[in-house]
From TrEMBL:
Chain ranges of the At1g61320/AtMIF1 LRR domain: 129-463
Pfam family, one: F-box
Superkingdom in the source lineage: Eukaryota
Name recorded for this polypeptide: F-box/RNI-like/FBD-like domains-containing protein
Lineage: Eukaryota, Viridiplantae, Streptophyta, Embryophyta, Tracheophyta
Entry-linked InterPro entries: At1g61320/At1g61330-like (IPR053772), F-box-like_dom_sf (IPR036047), F-box_AtFBL13-like (IPR053781), F-box_dom (IPR001810), LRR_At1g61320_AtMIF1 (IPR055357), LRR_dom_sf (IPR032675)
F-box domain mapped to chain residues: 34-70
Amino acid sequence: MGKRGRMCPDLFPDLLECSSFSSSSPANDDVDRISELPDVLRLHILSLLPLKSAIRTGVLSSKWRGLWAHRWPDPSSLFLSSCSSSSSAPTGPAEEDAFVSTTNRCLAKRGRRRIDSLVLSFHLGQVLQSDLKQWLDYAAACSVEDFHLCVLPAEPASAASSQTHRNNNSINRRRSASSLIFHFPMDSPLLIRLSLRGIHLSAANSASTRLEILALHSVTLSDAALRKVVAACPLLRCLDIRRCRDFRRIQISASGPHLKSLTVVDCPKANELIVTSAPGLRSFRFCGTFLSRYSIENAYGLEEVYFTSAVPNLSLPNSNWVSSFERLANVTALTLCSHALQYIAVRGAGKVGPMRSLYRLEELQLLMLMMSDTSLNDLFSFLRLYQCPVLERLFVELPTCNDQHAENFMEIEDEEPPKDCLDKLKTIKVRNYKGHHNEVRLVQYLLLKATNLNSLVVIVSRESLEPEYSKEPSSRLRFLHLQLSLFTKASENAQIVFCECDIDGIQPTHSEAFFKF
């Protein structure tokens, strides 16, 4: 942004269009005229901007910071939750009715005026379909831009509450446990972000929307309904699908070039994932059971890829994911789990020399669900089969459980550690280090081969130490620290940082955890 008060046209095109203030001579470069406007005028300018552009004006100066939140009559954002007033969810009909009544009073008091963000969160059985429809109509009438609807599972009723329910059949009939329905698309003309959880989605209407971000969590909808929804969002930039249990064939055919990010997590019945007409796709994250077929039309354009499975595999299901993986020519940040490494090792068994060069890969994160001999061999196989000539950052997440005697499910010969493949590596971070045999082998190998290493950060958790060290963990920690300091280093400048918590601030691109180790 340069000098105070000067705006970058690439970041704030809308704001510049709204303002008639510009500097016509170098003498005016230091004058921050737009920030000297009265609040009422600056709020009017913000009211002409989309929500995301209004938020970004906060970098202009301290006078703009946070001002966007007041561009509409208070409150410009609403968070309405049945659990917000107490630590436990309402279990009786009186409490359930109170949430509906309180929400209705709140919305009526505010009136039908513009609103930036609206969040509704409650448990299944607390709200009728007619109540929900009334709230959705309100959000649409207020031209909401950011809407979140979270329907949590029904809470088990207490004994007293159950007796009350039995004595009040009318309320019992009213509180149906069936799923609520959200009819897509929502009528708000300015809706940009939509997040739905725990609801049935109907997509009978295929009218086009302005949606840019869509998140579906535990939503019930068919394969055909998903195709309709995506087709109705030509401006969609980010699609996040999690724990939707009815999908069989997830087919994403973007109706525009804007789709940049796709996330699919834990859709257990799905066996195919097909992505077409998405030339702008740059980020793909997948976590779940390996599918039989992956087809990403423009895989060569992907820059960030996360591919993991937390489901134990005693055998490898038939899947073509490795073939699709080999098309990732431009990936710069990659996250793989030990199960994915196992697929790669089996496919590359017997091959001499590398299969592919990930010549743009700068960051690699490995999530090791086990650290058996086989797991370490699979890791070495990956480094041998896929050359990474510009790899600079390596993150290794070791298992938290005590698996030093883990069974090797595949009887294979020890993999010879690859040579000369980590010349550019500058940063290594290892979490959950316990000093087990294969963990030591891995760290020794990395220190020997990373000739330009600047830092190795090793994080040890007291909770992950073996039970016999629980009484005096400090002695075990001192031993591990001393052990690391004695390892041979190929880089004289390499600093070994040993700590019990993550304090260095170095985080991988994919820092969100989709499963627990």
